[in-house]
Amino acid sequence: MTLKRVQKFGLFNYMGSAIALLQLAYLILLRPLIHSQFLELAAVATLFMVGVIIGRALYYQRSHVVVSYDEEGFLIAKGSKKTESHLWNEFRNVSLFADSSGQLNVRMYFEKDGLYVDIPVSRAGGDAYELRSFVQRKLKS
User: Fold this and answer.
1) Which burial class, exposed, middle or buried, applies to 96 when counting CB atoms under 10 A from its CB (0-12, 13-18, 19+)?
2) What CATH number corresponds to the domain at position 133?
3) Which domain holds residue 47?
4) Are residues 50 and 108 in the same domain?
5) Does residue 134 sit in the same domain as residue 88?
6) Domain count for the chain
7) Closest CA to 16 of 60, 55, 43
8) Binning pLDDT at 50, 70 and 90, where does residue 96 land?
9) Residues 40 and 70 in one domain
10) Which of 72, 76, 101, 104 fits a disulfide with 128 by CB distance 3.0 to 4.6 angstroms?
11) Pick the residue with more confidence: 9 or 24?
12) DSSP 83-130
């Protein structure tokens, strides 16, 4: 099963930053050269659309979280990188953990109260309780 959800705040943050930078560049570089209101409006609208496209591309390349899991293990990808993958049999315990933004993660322990890996299932659009139950069944078998 693959879980992926667009984080609206993150997406809009990247888009807003790209739009702001393009508009600033426009004000400094192009506005003194444009003397027609129509061309000015067209330039602003074009820069807005380009900013949306650049912001969206940056979000998917850097921040978009995808969690994939099956009967064998799981994979976490953030942006265009595979950040972590593990097999279920590597772990001894599982719990739920709320991160600083209040979203639930599934915390997988390699040994009891030892090293752990957090699976950001809520951020990816999944149900943390459901994944925890699934993992508990895998650890007992």
Assistant:
1) middle
2) 2.30.29
3) 2-62
4) no
5) yes
6) 2
7) 55
8) very high
9) no
10) 104
11) 24
12) EEEEEGGG-SEEEEEE-TTS-EEEEEESSTTS-EEEE-TTTTT--HHH
- pLDDT tens for residues 57-94? 988 888 888 888 888 999 888 888 878 899 999 999 99
pLDDT band at 5 (very low <50, low <70, confident <90, very high): low
53 and 119 inside one domain: no
pTM: 0.71
Same domain, 16 and 42: yes
d(CA 72, CA 106): 16
Residue 6's pLDDT band, with cuts at 50, 70 and 90, is: low
Amino acid at 105: N
Are 108 and 86 spatial neighbours (Cβ–Cβ below 8 Å)? yes
Q: Which two tokens mark 116?
A: 């752990």
